[in-house]
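Archive entry. Fields below.
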Amino acid sequence: MRVVIAEDLALLRDGLTRLLRDSGFEVVAAVENGDDLVASVERERPDVAIVDVRLPPTFTDEGVRAALEARRVVPSTPVLILSQYVEQTYAAELLADGSGGVGYLLKDRVADPDEFVAAVRRVAEGGTALDPEAVAQLFARRRGHAPMDELTPREAEVLGLMAEGRSNAAIARELVVTEGAVEKHISSILGKLGLPKSEDDHRRVLAVLAYLRG
Amino acid sequence: MWSILGGVTATTAQLPADRAERPSALRYPISRRFLRDLGYMVLTLGTSVVAFTLLVAGLSVTLSLAILIVGVPVAILNAIINREWAGVQRRLSGWALGEPIRAAYRPAPQGLLARLRTVLADPQTWRDLLWLAFDSIAGFTFAIVVITAWGVVIGSLTLPAWWWTMPGDASYLGLTLGTTGGSFLGVGVGLAALVPILAITRGFTAAHAHVARALLRPSGNARVEELTESRAGAVDAAHEELQRIERDLHDGAQARLVALAMDLGLAERKVAEDPAASRELIGEAREEAVRALGELRELVRGIGPSILRDRGLEAAVASLTAGRTQPVDARVDVGQPRPPATVEAAAYFVVAESIANAARHSGASRVTVRVWRDAAERIVVECTDDGQGGADPTAGSGLSGLIKRVRALDGTLTVTSPAGGPTTIRAEIPCGS
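PREDICTED_STRUCTURE:
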């Protein structure tokens, strides 16, 4: 799997490169600013781009804007944003084009290489990887809204894992239940939230997120 | 010269440096005061001529070029020249009054047009112009009257001495003097005129200097503006400081901890299959932890070294200069009681930044630091280096942050750094009321 990394701090750029190579990825470019990211995505057509939110020259949301630009130049390029804080607006902006392959993780998540690598693969395959922190923020915003309060604690847990981008199988493993039980929970959640049923994991996640954002 | 052209912010709110050391007018003996008045009037003859020249030349050149692009820099230059001249007049009239006259101009922004707007909107620009007009007419008249009167008085008092050189029919004040005794009439007239003429000299000097003070010191509004601005400067300085801390954390300790976590994660993954590689990763993680600690320590130090809080300015400056490769000759004596913490911190950062600048940019071989408390209860910090000069406080350096910090405490910071050096950074920070 071919990866482009955009991270301005050499320490983290090298660390990520090492971690990904060690995990069997091919790092085809490791750049330090937004313009180079767009250029290398256009040139390399990577399977996934891993981008720090804060890049020079503005050190604000340069990375998100560069990622959006890269997806405009090469549509549907999967993008995983890394950040030291969660700003759900950024995640929402990336999800807005609905073309899939979007991740938004805290940098802390690299501490667990296997989880992190799984998230990178999920995004590369067109899935979603939202940081639990971001999911929690989205949940907090909807708390007090009628349908959310109707969810059982177990269903809320399943919804959180769905929003993070986990597959049914992964959710089942996480909660130590059967996949059938997970499916039952999901259809109950979608029913309570009034969302259409879908077989596609990613579409399902998007529907949930659209609901949470609204 | 750049400090005039580029660093208006830095220099204009400056008080004359010797305010504190100057005894008040009343302590001079009477005769000294009259000599000073007379000297002031003689100088006024000169200043009024300069004022007239500046007024006429400045107005005619600026107005005639006003419709051209080049009129913009010319107008700014004209205002700057008038400001410099007003500065000379402030010192002169301050000398005559026995107390300094404050100056305050709005700080000049970047860009010619913006600067022109600021200059035109600054009431002091127009008051400077008004002063030129006053000095050209009244100053000249006062000076001529006083100098002529003294000429007559001195001439009269010494008339007997002149008598020998006069032809027989010499006239004095319209009288024809025929005898030696008649020449002593002059002495009588001179003595009689002495008192009113002393009074005229005193009166004209006082009037001239008071008008100068009224026009050249900041008006009430200007003081309010200055305070508003120094308050905004304080808020800006605090905000910039927070941003710097956030940025230092993001790029420093936070990033190191991420790298450390990443190393540990990889090490954990490899511990079974490749113990040697995992040991190496754990070692790297430990080093990252140590570096993160170091950066946190630096950051905390940047907020304010604990030695400053615990032991005061002298100890803090000593610890700042200890162990530097570049020799720093520091003498700090601010006496007791200790200045307020904000004043100590500002003084400390002026020293820290000056030393850092000298080391980073100027190629200085030695730095001299002097910190003392003057008679007006101000902490004065003076840092001089023998480097190549050319420091520019407007270039977004640490110096501009320092200027804001010092202004927020109602102090002044001046940077004198001609190309070729030496660079002197001087801050005066009042200890507060």
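CURATOR_NOTE: DSSP finds 15 helices and seven strands in chain B.
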